[in-house]
Amino acid sequence: MTLMPPASALRFSFSRTDLRRIGLALAGCVVVGVLVYFVAFALSLEAQRTLARQRLNFYALSLEATLTRYESLPGLLVLERDLAALLASPSDAARRAAANRYLETVQGEAGVAAAYLIDRDGNTLAASNWYLPQSFVGQNYAFRPYFREALAGRLGRFYAVGATTGEPGYFLAAPVRLGGQVRGVVAVKVGLEAFEQALAKSGDTVMLADAAGIVFLSSLPDWRYRALAPLDAETRARLVEQRQYGSHPLSPLAPGSDLRRSGGGPVPLALPDGRQNERLVQAQPVGHLGWSLVLLSDPAEARVTALVAGVAAGFASAFAAAVAAHLRLRRRREEERRRAHHELEARIAERTADLSAKVAELERTEAILRRTRDAAVQTGKLAVLGQMSAGMSHELNQPLAALHTFSDNAVALLDLGRLGEVRENLQTISQLTGRLGTIVTQLKSFARKAPEALGPVPVDNALANALLIVEPRRRELGATIDGSAVRSGRYVVAEAVRLEQVLVNLLRNGLDAVSGHDEPRLELRVAEEGGRVRIAVRDNGPGIPADALPHLFEPFYTTKPAGEGLGLGLAISLAIVEGFGGRLEAKNLDGSGAEFALLLDSTACGDAPCLI
What is the CA 48 to chain-centroid distance, rounded? Predict the structure, then answer.
């Protein structure tokens, strides 16, 4: 029979050593819990920062794509002749109306808020909203930084509240040059409301601030036009001078805090809605003006996760259920991260598709530019034909007069029975008729707008045809053209009519350069150079001024007196030669004179068709 011990025997007694060990164990659990808490909090914060960086990167890509889409628009608008014509004659009502209609069309097709033309004094001459009560026409924007930057020859960028309409927008401006000088500015205003609406729908607290730390776009409308940090007097004075944000007070977003110097950890903030709480502040630079995308995230979840991890670690041996709960919580958090990652990938894929559409749109724009360039080349050819029409009239009148004389002589000689001399007169008449046909054929070929189909072109024929076209100008100046290199026997990859157009431009420029010289002289040189053919036109004129060399091939830049040239010949020639895959160069010769040379790919021709 087993006897139960008395009740007094079931009592436990703890010695001081046992109590000390229990105390140390409890202290150890507390230490482990605290350490695990800080480690888990740091890891959770890093994961939150990583996710925030991914989101910021996504928002930055979206904004960059929106801004880049319109970067090249002002540069395209400055090529429009109606705008240049209005700058040349600001008081011409017809030109002002044409410029207004053009800008109104651009505004509608490009989807911008406004497009307008400003003279160099800051006065708006034409605008897409010319018909509205709040039209830009007549307004002066000389105080705007984008105007000053464009006037200095650079692309101007600026975000501000409209001084006329009170509506905010992103301004882009480009200089308009006439005769090599900046005579005005073309500006466009782009609205960013769609981007701000996307921020509001994202669920994140995101702000876009300028270089001074002023929030001008936000997912929370009440935070717009607030400062990330208190503004100093100099910054406020500059903003007032530029009227960038109108009459907004620009008070600090979090009084007593500088959100730009958060240090990477949670920052206690007093936000405009009255809540006192800490936020994780992360920023990413974006754009060309020192802008920053700022994202505020709540670290409370990270703290909760770290606390659970610390408690679970401290009581793991005694509370298995707590450990299991902690593991389940971690699995949930991992699933949330996976979902967030998938959502981010879906957003990136959507953005990629949008970017592909924008690339296609840019390709369409490039096609329009190519067609515009072709039209400019054809216009340049017709301008050359107009300039040389007087000389060609003389060139045709000479053989026509000779034809009349020889035909009368032939009749008289026939009556006299002098048949041998009649035959000679008829042969001379045939030669003169052939000469007339050659001149007319060259004129028709030069004026025709042929498709740009590249093929083998004989250099000799191209030079001969070009010399025939400039012959009246040469005789007028009494100049000598050394064409001994015309019989080179070489072929180049080009298009015959356009190659002749380039040669005519270079020859006419050379003749203009030697005008007034005692012994005007041009020299043609053709040589092989590294698998290419180099065709050079040299003159013994005064040479090219050093300050003009870097600008020779710019549109509308000319060293000729006013009224003697638009400055388009060399720009058009450069576009043609580059279309052939070649180069057009200019330099001064030692002593005196200048040389213009074009380098084109060489090809060979024999009895069989040429092979390229």
Answer: 36
As a whole number of Å, the end-to-end CA separation of the chain is 118
Instruction: Please report the sign of the dihedral spanned by the C-alpha atoms of residue 246, residue 248, residue 249, residue 254.
Output: negative
pLDDT in tens, 63-81: 988 888 898 999 899 999 9
DSSP 298-343: -THHHHHHHHHHHHHHHTTTT-HHHHHHHHHHHHHHHHHHHHHHHH
Angle between helices 496-514 and 569-579 (to 10 degrees): 150
Residues of the chain with pLDDT under 70: 1-14, 256, 262-265, 269-276, 317-318, 320-326, 329, 369-399, 401-402, 431-432, 435-452, 485-486, 556-557, 559, 561-568, 605-612
pLDDT given for residue 611 in this prediction? 45
Nearest by Cα to 259 from 281, 286, 277: 281
State the pLDDT at residue 49: 81
* Assigned token pair, 418: 């002098």
**What integer best gives the mean pLDDT of the chain?**
82
By DSSP bridging, strand 532-539 and strand 594-603 are antiparallel
Q: What string of DSSP letters covers 127-185?
A: ETTTTSTT-STT-B-TTSHHHHHHHTTS-EEEEEE-TTT--EEEEEEEEEEETTEEEEE
Q: What does the block give as tokens for 248?
A: 């907004």
DSSP 207: E
Stated pTM of the model: 0.47
Assess contact for 538 and 525: CB atoms under 8 A: yes
User: How far is 329 from 338, CA to CA, in rounded Å?
Assistant: 14
> How do 521-529 and 480-482 pair as beta strands?
parallel
Q: Please count the CA atoms within 13 angstroms of the CA of 66 that sit on its side-chain side.
A: 22
Determine which helix (DSSP H) or strand (DSSP E) holds 395, and give its type and residue range: helix 389-416
Of 165, 111, 161, 112, the C-alpha closest to 137 is 165
Q: Of 84, 148, 101, 79, give the one whose Cα is nearest residue 120.
A: 148
**What values do phi and psi take at 192, rounded to 5?**
-110, 25
Q: Give me the residue label for tokens 């040429």.
A: 610
Beta-bridge mates of residue 455: 494
